Amino acid sequence: MADYPSQFDKDDLLKCARGELFGPGNAQLPEPPMLMMDRITDISGDGGAHGKGHVVAEFDITPDLWFFDCHFPGNPIMPGCLGLDGLWQLTGFNLGWRGWQGRGYALGVGEVKLTGMVRPDRKMLTYKIDFTKAIQTRRLTMGVADGIVEADGEVIYQVKDMKVALSES
């Protein structure tokens, strides 16, 4: 593992978005408004349900978030794809945190279940990601993980076999 802390605040995440955390050409988060978390509260390369790494992060929900005005007028709901993107963002972040080189790319997800919604009255999303595989070979750097998103403690999204790769090209 690289010598990075196991917790990151919003300033740290913004450094990652600017390419300052893991270095140019390596794993990078998007900038706001597409940055889908406010802090990472725990990260590892050997923890989680399978002992292959995990990430726990939080996103503060406020009624003035950009997506509530447009999705849908008069019936504001956070698009489910943004929660999925947050899971992908954190999976790629974990690969960069490990010190692995290359830019992150979402490759897919095996299964997605959306069982709840994020409305403006929610207060916080919690992302929980458990790696099932973390592979680094000469030709391939990839993480495979399962994840959940909780809204105020209620599980609302579940994914299986989410895949993110790092590529130096």
UniProtKB/TrEMBL annotation:
Enzyme Commission no: 4.2.1.59
Record localization: Cytoplasm
Any single biological process term in GO: fatty acid biosynthetic process
Enzymatic reactions: a (3R)-hydroxyacyl-[ACP] = a (2E)-enoyl-[ACP] + H2O
Coiled coil: none
Subunit structure: Homodimer.
Family recorded in the similarity comment: Belongs to the thioester dehydratase family. FabA subfamily.
Name of this protein: 3-hydroxyacyl-[acyl-carrier-protein] dehydratase FabA
Native organism: Puniceibacterium antarcticum
